[in-house]
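Task 17 of the worksheet. Students: predict the tertiary structure of the chain below and write it out as structure tokens. Keep your answer in the requested format; marks are given for formatting as well as content.
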Amino acid sequence: MRVGIDSYCFHRYFGEVYAGLQRDPGTRWTAFDFVAFARSLGVDGVSLESCFLPSRDQGFLAELKVALDEARLERAFAWGHPDGFEGGGNAAMLDDLMQHLPAARALGTTVMRIVGSSLAFRSVPVDEQIARLTPLLREAARVAAANGVVLGIENHIDFTSEDIVRLLDAVDSPHLRVTLDTGNALRVFEDPVVAARRLAPWVVATHIKDVTAGRGAPRDWTFWPSVPLGRGLIDLPGVFTALREARYAGLLCVEIDNVAPPHNVRPEEELVRESVEYLRQQVG
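Model answer:
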């Protein structure tokens, strides 16, 4: 397993500031700034959020690939923020996903994280969401195969690991696999180690996130704010053991979203740097 970072760690720098929860840092990054920071850390790879790329222009993608190649960074591509297929209720997103598949290849990766649903659709019965998502994901996997891409559906504060396995079984394609998010497992009241063990055979990408308990209602994702890796409630060593036992050999990508006090007064660079050092100590 190798150490990486997800560009979502810097979502404020890319202009996404959570209203009422975060302050605008007054700083803006480009994808090239993110790559330069990853290079300065000496990490093995990155996950690039498509929502933070200014375009899918071939010239831009070629330039970004050169920067990634020069930095010797393994990479994954991430599609679907914030709601993806909206629990299967937005079939138009299938066309959007398909349009992003060539971008993944242009950037030099065959792994693309996708989103089936989100917390916004928690009131929709899971069985209904799975029934709606299944034909969409079958078609997405078919087109992904034609493009030489493997899709990794994330547990996105929407489904438990058992629900994800049901989707995988229903779609039944080697081109639909899993992006494991450790923090999001706890946010749906599932033991992250149990989720990791169940999903590990299908994992092709990760969001390694640590969270703590905050204030308010536990069903609200804001109850579970992020902290640097190793400072929260997630049994990350247990997750790494589960992945190792399943022979996962991909990136462990640090992801940070809504940061908990007192860490929220620290810049993202410090939080990510601390998390990367923790990962290195854990996986060598």
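Marker's comment: The chain has nine helices and ten strands. The longest strand covers residues 176-181.
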